[in-house]
TrEMBL record:
Belongs to the 'GDXG' lipolytic enzyme family. Pfam families: Abhydrolase_3. This is Putative esterase/deacetylase. InterPro entries: AB_hydrolase_3, AB_hydrolase_fold, GDXG_lipolytic_enzyme, Lipase_GDXG_HIS_AS. Gene3D superfamilies: alpha/beta hydrolase.
Amino acid sequence: MGHTDPAAITANATLPTSTALPKRGCRVAPWHVHVKSLLATAIDPRILFHLGLVLGDNVLPRLVAGNPRQKETHEMASKQSEANKKHYETLMTHAQNGEQLSPEEAAAWNDAEWTKLTAEPGGVDFLEVEVGGRPALWIVPKGAVHDRVIFYIHGGGFVGGSIYTHRKMIAHLAKATGCRALAISYDYVYQGRHYPAQRNQAVDAYRWLLDQGIEPRHIAGAGDSAGVTILFGALLVSRDRGLPLPAAIISISGWYDMAAAGASYQSNSQKDLFFQKGTVEWLAGMVLAGVDPRDPYASPLYADVTGFPPIFLQAGGDETLLDDSLVFAERARTAGVDVRIDVFPRMLHSFQMLAGRAPEADDAIGRFAAWVRPKLGLPEAESNAS
């Protein structure tokens, strides 16, 4: 059933149609053309993994002239939510300046800056552990029910993000839900590890969690952006291998379509300057290294999810990946899956990282928690993300 909040678009909403781009006096070459130009000037190609996340078509004129004010709608974004947009703008500025960082340096910088978006939740312990031979993080709120677990896979385009960038946001979710969370790590593509290596590592981590005696009916799978890609790939493989699926799935701004076929790449291109179609196609090509972008194990949009547990998707109304969530929700519902999707007006990609600072993020976390608690057999309770 769809949510009735007027600030959310439900799973029953009509899918958006493509709209024409406004005419412009000039057009900057798409990202893949910039890549060739950068290579020609001998800029360290290792920086390209970082640039590809943030640069897209029509970026440079807007950096110089500033973004035109969007037409006001009935839903105004909070002042606090602007921090998410400013984070992406900072990344773009670093990229424009041609700063030659190694992948490790860029990841460390992003770890430090990205995590600043999220407030410390308070009353939560973070315990490092090894899961399937890789670092992971137990996130344990005070008073949490220990046999209920949110199995979380962070986003970052397969080239960034970590269990540390996301630990506070995941902690807000775990605290609001009243259970533990397990945040897992995976290899980055700049380490020479292309997909499906990350999916296979997630399968190993999920099996490890089951081996700890946690019942699947007490597990909720969760992820954001590329983490959603990995999560669904891992659950599809787990199903193929006869492993039980979790009780519920939480999806934040999921990257469901490596083929980047959604109409929102066009309709939201003037609102989301960071994840332009050319950028995402380039990044997908680097991640997949020859794998078909419509392979259902790489792009959940094309997967048969019949028999999957209930899924709650959230997306920003202004993000270019909006259609990934909308179309996936419709297809999953057609397959008989219990689906809820909430779209938050004027929000960008993974705005939930603002938990504890922006009301939209706190609202989103609260909705997730209220929805997932009964799925895990937890009683309804007053909860907040702060």
